[in-house]
Amino acid sequence: MAAPQASHSHPPLEGQTRVIATIALALATFMNVLDTTIANVSIPAIAGDLGVSPNQGTWVITSFAVANAISVPLTGWLAQRFGQVHVFVLSVLLFVCASALCGMAGSIEMLIAFRVVQGLVAGPMIPLSSALLLQSYPPAKSAVALAIWAMTTLVAPVMGPILGGWISDNMSWPWIFYINIPTGVFAAWLCWRVFKHRESPTRKLPVDYVGLGLLVVWVGSLQIMLDKGKELGWFDSAEIITLTVVACVGFCFFVLWELTDEHPIVELRLFAKRNFLVGTVALSLGYCLFFGNVVIMPLWLQQYIGYTATWAGLATAPVGILAIMISPIVGKNLPKTDPRMVASVAFIIFAGTAFMRSHFNVGVTFWDLVLPQFLQGAATATFFVPLSAISLAGLKPQQIASATGLSNFVRITAGAFGASIFTTLWQDRSTLHHAQLTEAINPYNPIANSALDGLKSQGFTLDQALGTINRLIDQQAATLAATEFFWFSGYLFVALVAVVWLARSRQAGGPAPADAGGAH
After folding, report:
1. pLDDT at residue 148 above 90?
2. Would you identify the CATH topology of the domain 270-424+482-520?
3. Residue 127: which of 20, 263, 28, 10 has the closest Cα?
């Protein structure tokens, strides 16, 4: 089950009421999408305040993403059982409550638990906001409605790092969650005023409790295993082995159950469709790499290059500029073009910007950082929509909702897994490079001795001089590991171009998807 289709059983809104409805839905969507990026640049501040490593701090990001992915498939059932308006408004209010709890968390465990709750209640907000917005406009203006909605989902990721960085530097990290309270309450109040008499029909439907339980078990176990593996020594730990076994067994039972259940929570049979399989795999792997870059960049800048949270946010935010400018052009012209070609362009741009980052060093300038981020916006604009079009090509109208929900679930889950895997690999490679570089610091290396003598001549003790050199080695090791990741990402993006062309062609003029939730 997935996002419900827009229903026009109610007449479109007119005039001021439609403007208010658009503002209300945009605010709620903005708040939701903002929370997927606002915490990225705040991770060092959160980790430091709660007494954990920045690597453990990334659980704040991945826990939200995994919980969000799990709840997305429930949206269709919830909307049909309780009504779109009731579910949407309640989701917004619960999101506000969860945000307040996140801000009040006194430990990393509490914060992760509240982020899980926040992710769970956020699941229905994105698909239902687009459905309600489509109801508010006449069919002839549906493209305008979707353009407004898409712009909101693109602006939020741009503002997230900047706002999160400024709050972390000038206030305190809990305020990245507290700012949701007035925004969410106001959006929920406006939505209820406008839509309370426009509720969708409801009916009792069976829910796949077994499938939902298995989904939570295998996804949750796998994510915890990925997040805690480094800390516990991977498979030297009985806990990690147990989590791996539970994840594997749970996944196998989940697949078997969903393929045989009459009302599956996730319609896995859609993967038998070639284009859906290819489109979803390319979209998910691409998003996995993209999200890994989104998480690692601010951590590297703040921990090793000396950037504040504000400047790290400013350095990463330009990714949205070209995306906002190009997305309407892509949406307008996609029905006339081959989406495989457009998606290929996206992956080539992604690869190019990754290779640009692979040449970074510890002396990288602000503008060196900004240029690939700016160019990557063009890739973002030409990435999500064409691959969604490929995924949905050839499906029956009644399959679109399930297909969109399943594709979003796989994409969001892949992003969360990618963040955990790539931050762990980055840390492991940093440790390896540190050990290799440290070998050069010995009494027989004249360069090392010269550096030590220079520091001691400035009044440093031997321990202080060695500590200074160790910090320089830390910086160099982390930078080498980061550039290796960027280089690796570039080649994987190139490989995904070949994957895209495994899909069958779609006739020009075919339907483009109404799902613009790329930024989310």
Report:
1. no
2. Growth Hormone; Chain: A; (1.20.1250)
3. 28
